[in-house]
Amino acid sequence: MEAAAATTTTNIPLLTAYKMGQFNLSHRMVLAPLTRIRSYNHIPQPHAILYYSQRTTNGGFLIAEATGVSNTAQGYPNTPGIWTKEQVEAWKPIVDAVHQKGGIIFCQIWHAGRVSNYGLQPNGEAPISSTSKGVTPGVDGLDWSPPRPLSIEEIPKIVNDFRLAARNAIEAGFDGVEIHGANGYLIDQFMKDQVNDRTDEYGGGLENRCRFALEVVEAVVREIGTERVGMRLSPYAECAEAVDSNPEALGLYMAKALNKFKLLYLHVIEPRMIQLTDKSETQHSLLSMRRAFEGTFIAAGGYNRDEGNKAVAANYADLVAFGRLFLANPDLPKRFELNAHLNKYNRSTFYLPDPVVGYTDYPFLKLA
């Protein structure tokens, strides 16, 4: 919240400049992290160079898709990783392409936890989680396998996987990392009280349930520096059956706890996005978290041009992340500047393994 906005001649709030720590952003529109299922065998592919480059503007901020921190982290086929040398090398030309156009890009580091199945785990083992309670098979149309709860002795190993992934991201050239603590994945599985049924120091009250998340934050900050670390949270979401009985208290606790680490930014999904695909009516807002957190605040969740402009103008958020609109409109900032028509996204091609269709074939504006 304390980061200063630069003066600008534009009267479109989303297109005003903003200083996020050491990064000078030319506008407030962020490419949200979007799973695209096109990294064959968990290795980023050359076609991602064009995808990210298309969505880069000079001074624009991009968050790359959820990227696994280890060989137990994957929840879907063909999602990228960053735990091997080969993966690090594969990311480099993608990051370079963004930098060549003047963009800033962070890697979202991720562990799916119980949102996985035996086929995606090493040696067909059970996915790991805070609990032995699995996601109901068939939820989101996929077949989830029952997880096993991590022992206390195993937790430092997972924390270290996040630390090493952050180091690898910097080696790959990323400007920083976003710790994925949202959407029902491993960190969320520890934080949410309807999933976490532990009776040790990682379960029970808010402080215990958030312990793992904050240990990950501490390890990553120590490894690469607080000025290169953000975090994504979704306290109100119920993705993959990860529900909390008091999401407002959870969100506020985490916003305050993260101040201790002087995190660069906090990226939070709107309460209206109970599920990732549709908006719901809600009385809740992110205002209490926004006021509590002392760094840059990014709001996400079904925003359009008007809503994004209002959020920035009202100081409800410093930046606004756009997912599906950016996916379908690689030149989204230009379209918002001109208030031009938008391409409609095609949900059926979101997760195709095709290197072009639904990925890099959305058209740009034809300017006279």
Notes on the structure:
The protein has 368 residues and is of the alpha/beta class. Helices cover 29% and strands 14% of the residues. It has 11 helices and 13 strands. An 8-stranded parallel β-barrel has the order 3-4-6-9-10-11-12-13, surrounded by 5 helices. It has a two-stranded antiparallel sheet with strand order 1-2. Strands 7-8 form a two-stranded parallel sheet. It starts with 17 loop residues before the first strand and ends in a 30-residue tail after the last helix.
Which characteristics define this entry?
eight-stranded parallel beta barrel, 11 helices, disordered N terminus, alpha/beta, 368 residues, two-stranded antiparallel sheet, 14% strand, globular
The sequence of SSEs as H and E is EEEHEEHEEEHEHHHEHEHEHEHH
The number of strands is 13
Which value, in Å, is the CA radius of gyration? 19 Å
- Helix count from the secondary structure assignment: 11
Percent in strands: 5-15%
**Separation, N- and C-terminal Cα atoms:** 39 Å
The largest β sheet comes out as: 8 strands, parallel, barrel
Helical coverage, percent range: 25-40%
Q: Average the pLDDT over all residues and give the rounded result.
A: 95
pLDDT < 50 runs, ≥5 residues: 1-9
Instruction: Give the CA-based shape.
Output: globular
The neighbouring-strand order within the major sheet is 3-4-6-9-10-11-12-13
Structural class estimated from helices and strands: alpha/beta
